[in-house]
Structure prediction request, 360 residues.
Amino acid sequence: MKPELVIIGGGIAGISCAARAVEDFSVTVLEAEMQPGYHSSGRSAAVSIEAYMNPVVHALTLESAAYHRAMGARPTRCCEVADASHVHLVDEFLSSWQGLCPDLHEISPTEMRAAVPILRADAVHRVVVDPNALALDPHGMLEGFRRVLVASGGRIISNARVSKLEAVPGGWKVHYADRVLAADVVVNAAGAWADEVALMAGALPLGLQPLRRTAVLVDAGQDVSTWPLVHRAQGGLYFKPEAGLLMVSLGDETPSPPCDARPEELDIATTMARFQEMTTLETSRPVRSWAGLRTFLPDRIPAVGFDAKVKDFFWLVGQGGFGMQTAPALSEAAASLLAGRGCQFADVLSPARGLSPPGS
Prediction:
């Protein structure tokens, strides 16, 4: 008989881990909201970028790429664009990343503006292209992992916010609503709420910080389907095709408590103002706006593994803005560690790797 595994959190981290772990465990996913992926996973920009965040995320992204391609991820490009005041940032970017990403290359401003004709001439002085980016389908990914889980006998329970974790001999009692589940192992994949879940279990929090990011949809009035993701070299703005429109974001990182994030009017106005500074498109109001939380650990590397002090309590947290692109590799790592098989990323992802919890 398989041991009972309860995963708290039905975002891409929890669902993908559940689908991988179901061969070794009897798996139940508890999702606090009415549907999996309601928070960060359902609000993802959903582009896999090789030259992103840090070398650990880069390695996890490479490990995940074959899965994404097999699932039909669409090749796209990610373009770092610098105006005259920020051309030096192109050299810094290439110095940081070209050793890991040898396919990075520069194209001319003329070629860039031919690809994205709304760009202002004074906004484009140097351009670096990552040709290996992939446009992902977050809802398709969630559904794909869900199907694997359910087909193998696992289950997902929605509207199941965990209220208490009780350590008992041989495992846990997991309380939610008016019910209790017995578990041999508990996986904490609760995203922005993960430190709160840890405290329920008697574990020290890792210092997770949710950061709010705002995005809007803009109608460009033309076919944008072949446009790349365009990222301002100095940060503070990017845009990409999204269902026939353009998704535009400040790339902001506003500290937030765990919550159902909502966009603020000032952030929406700032997004539109910066977008109009960079482009010739004249539009004052977006079609739609939203916000999501990207939750990071201090070193911006995920934590995957058993807690150092609390028995049978497993962390799967800190995926920040790269949860979708690294989910295939992180879920394989998590399932392998849960089953005691180890993995190549075990040490670098360990929750005990030297992070200082709040107040320490």
Remarks:
- DSSP finds nine helices and 21 strands in the chain.
- The mean pLDDT is 93.
- The CA atoms of residues 32 and 159 lie 5 Å apart.
